[in-house]
Amino acid sequence: MKLSNLLATLALVAASPALAQVCPYENLMPEFAEFVGATRDLQPAPRAEAFVTRFADKHPDFYTEQLFGSRDKVLERAKRLFDPQGAPKFAGARPITLDDVLVTGRSITTDYARIEATFRRAFPDYRCETPISFGLSLYMFDGNQATDVPGKPRMRFGVEMIALLHPPRELPAFFHHELMHIYQAQQVGAAAPAGGKQPVWWALWNEGLATYVSWKLNPTLTAPEIFWTPRDMETQMQPKVAEAARLMLADLDGHEGYERWFTAGSNPPGLPTRSGYYLGYLMAQRLDRGDLAALAKMPPEQVAREARSFLESLAVSPAKP
User: 10 Å Cβ neighbour count for 9?
Assistant: First the structure.
């Protein structure tokens, strides 16, 4: 972490006793704002080239080839950031401009510190061990807990995707979701499935539990505000949960089905995109006995058994949230 970023974090902590436990983070957004101002007269293509040379290349810990691909790929993706027509479109999401991204960037760490404090009250044993960074994901992710070094996860937040997908009312649920991923990884440790794509049974629990916790900590939010995309996830899934359970059982032990159940670019036959989040939410709801921390500590071998048992029962007798 840059000394300036660390000092800024320490200053924030000193200035506000309520945020005294905020974990250190790296914030690239002030530097990005300076870059935007200095390159305002450039057209999108040369501006993207300048971004790679003058910004991304300076932050190799954030823009790793493992996550973002080759330098040419970073350049290709950076063009979307500066071309008003390049931003991806999501149903229900408002169009945003670069100025919208800068506005979000100016408040994002203050919002994060406030929301993290509420998470720490719910999970007092949360530890400040995972490096956290705020930057530009080039429209790849809003939050990503990648493992650049085996056994050492890192959380990156994509501020432009947060601006695109998460209005202020929904921001607490978003950060609680991502912080739950960090917390669960800290509790499970090396026992968690290793490697690239997760087996479906682990992703079912990992994403479902984070979604469920985000609702438990923000119970006034509606289903669209918890599931994000598609906004009508619950409406689409409720009449199809038994069918979805049967389909997921066929994919449960492998890695191959991960994308169609948990990414926005694919979907199982006849089901909405990211439908695995909904099934996982129902699983966490069924297993909740009033101790969310205990759910986060569930050993993976137990998760595998519970996931199969849950889906088998759901295939016969659908549950409603």
Answer: 20
What is the C-alpha to C-alpha distance for residues 30 and 233, in angstroms, rounded to an integer?
A: 36
Question: Which tens digit of pLDDT belongs to each residue from 98-152?
Answer: 999 999 999 999 999 999 999 999 999 999 999 999 999 999 999 999 877 766 7
- Rounded Cα–Cα distance for residues 298 and 212 (Å): 15
Cα(270)–Cα(105) distance, integer angstroms: 38
What is the pTM assigned to this prediction?
0.90
Encoded tokens for 38 = 């200095």
Cα 224–chain centre separation? 16
